[in-house]
Structures are given as C-alpha cells and as structure tokens.
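hey
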C-alpha cells in the first residue's frame, strides 16, 4: 500500500466485517482472489451483507471496486475463494444462472437502454431471460404504476428520456427480474444533482420497502456513504477501512482521502 494509506492502521479482518452485518447474512464473499485474464486484482477479499442491507464500496480508481461487482455477477476470473448467497455457493454460476436462480441483478454504469425501443419494450427486455413472460408483464405493469416518470413515457422511444429517467429505466429493467440483490455501478455518474437525489431515493425505497440487498460502487463517496448502512474503503484490492456509513463520513482518514476534507 502506498504511504498515504499507511496511516489507516490495521485493515479489518473477516470477524470485524461480520460485526457490521450480524443478522441474516444474505451475500458472503470468502477469501476471494479474482481479476481478469491472469491479472489478480482482489486479494483475499471478504464481504458480508445482510438481507435488505446496503453496502457502499469506495476508494481510488483501480482499487477493485467494480471488480467486486463483476466477481459477484460472474464477469471475472476467480482464482480462489468463494461467493455464497444464503449459504449456497454461487462462485462459478454464469451471470444468467445467477440472475435466474438466486436473483442477482447488475445495473451497469454505462448507458445500456435501447434508444429506439419504447420505455415499455425496454422494461420487458429485463424479463427475457425468465421463461415466465406473464410474470415479467405483471412486474413491468407494477413498475409503470409505481414510477409516473416512466408511465408517462411508456410508448415513447427511450432516447427521449433525460439522463435521470434513463437511469431510472435501467434500475427498473433490472427489477422486472424480481431480484433479491442489486449490484449498482456508479448510480450518480453523469447525472445532474436533482437526478442524483432521485436515484438515491429510489434505491432507498427498494431497500427499505422492497427489502432488496444493495451493493453499490459510488465515486461520490459522500453521497454513497450517506445512503448506505455500511461502507468498505478499498485500496489495492483489499478493504483498508470498514464501518457504518455515517461513521465513515466522520472518519478523518476517509474524509482526507475521499471526501475532499
């Protein structure tokens, strides 16, 4: 670790992390070494998140934050270690199997809506992987009833949506699958402040009212930690600091390194 991080003291071990998610651990990563090709980015990485809890990953570029989401979803090479949901090992399942059998949905940071398809068609694309088309229709209908912004544009092409509405559509499309875990990569990236607020309100509603477990990577560390129950600060593929979101906001080391304090 570079000198500027040495002041951070002793890195948390699995037992410390477990105390932050004491009840009903939903997703668990044990001793994970993972990366791309032959390059290892995560080193002996542990993670615990309880059902309906939110965890924000922050840290400098290249620290391995997105690699954690990619590993959970099945986009990386896993050299050793395991990933479990409710005690069931899912380490080597494909993304499609993870979505279908254990309900993990990944909301990408890049613009992944289909611009020429209508809002409703985009929503239904979220359900194509499930064989239960009727269920997807019902879920899409429920989402349109819930979000007026999408309902008002349901028959318009997605390209007419604002950045914030597009992010809402990306989140909603993942919801059609009725996932239990949402992996959210940079929800605020490229959005105006009013839309950032909207996106975090939606994530808050999904966690508190729909009991979704949320793991997010957020460049805006302050926003991410204000939202999340717990936070992990990543440095060089390992967790350097972990704590409750509001405690990390008050932590002078985190403030100096990541909150511009």
């Amino acid at each position: 670790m570079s000198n500027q991080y040495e002041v951070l003291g002793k890195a948390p071990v699995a037992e410390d992390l477990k105390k932050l998610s004491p009840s009903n651990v939903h997703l668990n990563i044990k001793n994970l070494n993972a990366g791309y090709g032959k390059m290892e980015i995560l080193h002996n990485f542990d993670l615990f998140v309880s059902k309906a809890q939110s965890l924000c990953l922050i840290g400098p570029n290249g620290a391995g934050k997105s690699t954690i989401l990619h590993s959970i979803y099945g986009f990386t090479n896993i050299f050793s270690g395991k990933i479990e949901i409710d005690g069931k090992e899912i380490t080597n399942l494909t993304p499609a199997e993870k979505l279908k059998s254990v309900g993990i949905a990944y909301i990408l940071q890049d613009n992944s809506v289909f611009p020429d398809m209508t809002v409703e068609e985009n929503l239904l694309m979220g359900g194509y992987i499930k064989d239960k088309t009727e269920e997807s229709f019902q879920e899409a209908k429920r989402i349109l009833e819930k979000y007026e912004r999408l309902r008002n544009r349901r028959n318009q092409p997605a390209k007419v949506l604002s950045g914030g509405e597009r992010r809402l559509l990306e989140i909603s499309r993942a919801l059609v699958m009725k996932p239990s875990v949402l992996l959210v990569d940079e929800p605020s990236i490229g959005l105006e402040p009013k839309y950032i607020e909207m996106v975090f309100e939606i994530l808050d509603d999904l966690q508190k009212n729909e009991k979704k477990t949320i793991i997010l990577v957020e460049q805006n560390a302050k926003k991410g930690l204000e939202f999340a129950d717990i936070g992990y600060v990543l440095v060089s593929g390992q967790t350097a600091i972990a704590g409750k979101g509001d405690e990390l906001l008050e932590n002078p080391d985190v403030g100096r390194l990541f909150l511009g304090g």
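The first strand starts at residue 25 and ends at 36. The CA atoms of residues 122 and 179 lie 17 Å apart.
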